[in-house]
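Action item from last meeting closed. Structure (109 res):
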């Protein structure tokens, strides 16, 4: 592209001189372009692997959090049914499912 511009500006007689003068620059630009293409192709497989690993890690963390929160929900639901049945009072329904929790440390003795 640059040799065409040089030819238009300087006339046909100077086109050959412009090509010889700019050859290292053109070669360098083509080399950088080739490196970019090769680098992008080399990164395609690791990118796909990273996407797959990210999806699997997201599913795993989501399942773990879901299990954790569902166990808390089940414990509080069961505690509320025991309170309604008269088997536990409010303090016992919180402290029995979680004997080592921070709620026990906050309760007066």
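Sequence:
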């Amino acid at each position: 592209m640059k040799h065409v511009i040089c030819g238009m500006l300087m006339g046909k007689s100077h086109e050959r001189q412009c090509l010889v003068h700019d050859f290292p620059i053109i070669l360098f630009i083509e080399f950088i372009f080739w490196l970019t293409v090769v680098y992008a192709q080399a990164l395609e497989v690791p990118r796909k692997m990273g996407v797959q690993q990210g999806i699997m890690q997201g599913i795993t963390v989501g399942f773990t959090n879901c299990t954790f929160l569902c166990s808390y929900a089940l414990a509080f639901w069961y505690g509320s049914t025991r309170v309604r049945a008269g088997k536990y009072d409010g303090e016992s329904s919180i402290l029995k499912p979680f004997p080592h929790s921070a709620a026990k440390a906050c309760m007066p003795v």
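Note appended to the action item: The CA atoms of residues 20 and 95 lie 86 Å apart.
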